[in-house]
Design brief:
By secondary structure, this protein is mainly beta. The protein has three helices and ten strands. It is elongated, with a radius of gyration of 23 Å.
Length: 216
């Protein structure tokens, strides 16, 4: 016995389009505009199999539903090669229809790209100024393949800090200044890049630190 031929829950195009339009409209009503920043890998470490230097330049503005107006929900204490670090995570939701209308070359949001929540044009008066990295992308929210199509993407984001291996080169000066490590020299601010030669760095100073007058 087959299913009822008058109800098609998986392959009826008009019903899929209507549901996608509803999801997009709900996010546009209750959501906020965010900035999607693409990662371009400039140098790749073949030994460690990871990006050595990444440049963030191309940006897209897209509507997204941000629960709790961008406030972090959870905090994780992770062990890294530099010791313990705290990582704050949030989840946001993007309409699949809005993503397709951006005209990017990607079928879906990518892990490793950045998400900026706030107003990049006026960060001073913005309700929040937070930069996150995409850690996980899940399709089919609120229901997996509802009506046989993907209506939205759920992104799990983790907080981002300054890094010498990630260079911000967007059209927004405040974002670049906030995340790019800088050094003051001759009254000029320049972006510090990763050092290739560490021979001149004196990691352990010579001398006895327990003398009466300290290091000698």
């Amino acid at each position: 016995m087959t299913v009822n031929k008058y109800f098609n829950n998986l392959y009826y195009g008009p019903e899929q389009d209507m549901f996608n339009d509803i999801v997009q409209e709900v996010i546009q009503i209750h959501g906020s505009d965010i900035l999607y920043i693409c990662r371009d890998v400039e140098e790749f470490d073949e030994l460690l199999r990871e990006e050595k230097i990444s440049v963030f330049k191309t940006t897209y503005s897209i509507d997204a539903y941000v629960p709790n107006t961008g406030q972090n929900n959870t905090m994780q204490k992770l062990m890294s090669k530099f010791g313990f670090r705290f990582e704050e995570n949030i989840e946001i939701y993007i309409s699949a229809l809005s993503w397709d209308q951006l005209g990017t070359a990607f079928a879906q949001p990518r892990n490793g790209d950045y998400i900026y929540i706030g107003n990049p044009e006026d960060t001073y008066s913005s309700f929040t100024n937070s930069m996150f990295m995409i850690c996980d992308v899940v399709d089919g929210f609120p229901d997996t393949m509802h009506f046989g199509s993907i209506a939205s993407w759920k992104l799990t984001l983790s907080s981002v800090t300054k890094s010498y291996s990630n260079i911000m080169d967007t059209n927004y000066t405040d974002i670049n200044d906030y995340l790019n490590p800088t050094v003051e020299k001759d009254n000029k601010t320049t972006i510090k890049k990763p050092a290739d030669d560490f021979t001149d760095i004196n990691v352990v100073p010579s001398g006895n630190p327990f003398t009466k007058f300290g290091m000698k």
